[in-house]
Specification:
By secondary structure, the protein is of the alpha/beta class. It folds into three domains: 50 residues, Multidrug-efflux Transporter Regulator, Chain: A, Domain 2, CATH 1.10.1660.10; 105 residues, 3-Layer(aba) Sandwich (Rossmann fold); 36 residues, Orthogonal Bundle (Helix Hairpins). Helix content is 51%, strand content 17%. It has nine helices and seven strands; from the N terminus they run βααββαβαβαβααβαα. The strands form two sheets. Strands 5-4-6-7 form a four-stranded parallel β-sheet, sandwiched between helices. Strands 1-3-2 form a three-stranded antiparallel β-sheet. β4, α4 and β5 form a beta-alpha-beta unit. The longest helix has 18 residues.
């Protein structure tokens, strides 16, 4: 039995407005099924449509750890733009200002959403550690399973400074210190302060 969706549900899946869906209907781009006066969209047909839409769409993703590295972030994005310009019809530009070990980064979640909705065929990054500091192969396998290739372009000058790695290490130590509920916390805090001073 076909799964039929209302126009609002279909618009959310496709990531477009209801008015865009109505316009596409007039253009013959995506035809709904009429149930009385209401429109219904076949879920499987929407998935096919998303697959077609992703044939020539990619995402470029840049990340830095802190706001004082915004210039580095813009350099990453500009470098990636040059890698993809003229090759694809649609390019999503996704950015994060957050540690590479932080969960729930808005940009990373957006990449996952685009991949799940089959809106992109590839993700371009300058280096694997831009996507994640740890577990890159798991992320790569996850995106591949969704039909999305992760392409790491050698950014050379885009390589991050060592201080970003230190910030990630501090975040890891701070996280573990919190989990120890005070056990040897003073020693760990002292080590973090020493690391910051270094």
């Amino acid at each position: 039995m076909k799964k039929l969706l209302r126009i609002r549900e279909a618009s959310q899946i496709l990531g477009v407005s209801v008015s865009t869906l109505r316009r596409w209907e007039k253009e013959g781009k995506l035809k709904p099924i009429r149930v009385g006066k209401e429109r219904r969209y076949d879920y499987d047909k929407l998935m096919e449509f998303l697959g077609q839409a992703s044939d020539n769409a990619v995402a470029i993703y840049g990340r830095v750890s802190s706001a004082d590295q915004k210039k580095d972030l813009e350099r990453q994005i500009e470098f990636l733009r040059k890698q993809v310009e003229g090759k694809y019809e649609k390019i999503y530009e996704i950015k994060d200002i957050a540690s590479g070990i932080k969960e729930g980064r808005k940009g990373l979640l957006k990449l996952i959403e685009l991949a799940k909705l089959k809106k992109i065929k590839a993700i371009y990054i300058t280096y694997p550690d831009r996507l994640t500091r740890f577990g890159y192969q798991y992320f790569e396998e996850f995106f591949n399973a969704l039909g999305v290739e992760v392409i790491s372009v050698d950014g050379k000058d885009m390589k991050e400074p060592e201080k970003e790695l230190v910030k990630d290490l501090i975040e890891i130590l701070t996280s573990f210190a919190g989990r120890l509920y005070g056990l040897r916390a003073n020693k760990i805090k002292k080590a973090i302060e020493e690391l910051k001073n270094e």
